[in-house]
Amino acid sequence: MSESSHAIAPVLESPTPEQMKEFWTQVGRGQITKDRLQRFLRGGNRGDLPDINWQKAYALLGMSEEYAEFAKTQSVKEDPNLWIVPVIKGITCNKVVSVLRRAGVDVSLYVDDLDKDVTTNDRDQNRDGSYAIGFHRTIEADEENKNLSANKLAKRNHKGITLLERLLLELGYFLTTGRHLDEKNWTLCAGSRHSGGHVPRVRWDSGDRGVDVCWSSPDDSRACLRSRSAVLPA
Predict the structure, then answer these.
(1) 212: number of CA atoms within 13 Å, CB side?
(2) Could you state, in order of their start, the residue ranges of all structural domains in the chain?
(3) Do strands 192-194 and 199-205 pair parallel, antiparallel, or not at all (unpaired)?
(4) Residue 216 to residue 146: CA distance in whole angstroms
């Protein structure tokens, strides 16, 4: 399956009773459209996941003017299957972590300075300018990317999420819903590399009640370690 494909992925994890109750309720009401079914099968396990309030996120980041200018100059087609993430020049991983912490989210890091230690990114807004990027609208990272290491994904020309994009997605989703992403698995940030060549990974640790950011070997492949495929918006 290509990274930009919207084909329905196989369901390999059993849905919860709450998910099935909601699913059959919507079937009974005739509300299950192709798009809604697709999101359900892809793991949109909170029902229809909401649009993210990026204006609020960038206001807390102290970049309201930059966001307003970006919104005026960028024309991005909305997609009910995707979260479109605006990545604006001036934003950094350290800034996002700082705002998450000020918003009351505990963030555990394995290095003191993400901006210094994460030296390679497939997309870099401060190098190449602001951009928008899409990811499947799901709580858990993409099912079809499990058991695939960053090196194996690279051989497939996979376009994966960067660490900054994953942190921005965490901030936006938390501010919009009060909840967190990757409650069961890790997002492998295959679009980024630590200075030592390792690959960042991010999850919500329900035990410690915080967001964890740490590293994996580029050859590490596990069912719980999954990249989010980057999709350029139409």
Answers:
(1) 18
(2) 50-227
(3) unpaired
(4) 14
CA–CA gap between residue 150 and residue 158 (Å, rounded): 9
Q: How far apart are CA 100 and CA 209, in angstroms?
A: 13
Cα gap 186→201, rounded to integer Å: 6
Across-strand partners of 210? 106, 205
Of 137, 124, 219, 228, nearest to 186 by C-alpha is: 228
Task: Provide the residue-wise pLDDT of the chain in tens; the chain has 234 residues.
Answer: 333 322 223 333 445 566 566 656 655 655 444 444 554 454 444 347 999 999 999 999 999 999 999 999 887 777 888 999 999 999 999 999 999 999 999 999 989 899 999 999 999 999 999 999 999 999 999 999 999 999 999 999 999 999 999 999 999 999 999 999 999 999 999 999 999 999 999 999 988 899 999 999 999 999 999 999 999 765
Instruction: Count CA within 13 A, CB hemisphere, residue 213.
Output: 28
- Provide Rg for the chain, Cα atoms: 17
Cα 47 from Cα 35, distance rounded (Å)? 12
Read off the tokens for 129: 């300018």
Residue among 52, 13, 11 nearest 184 (CA) = 13
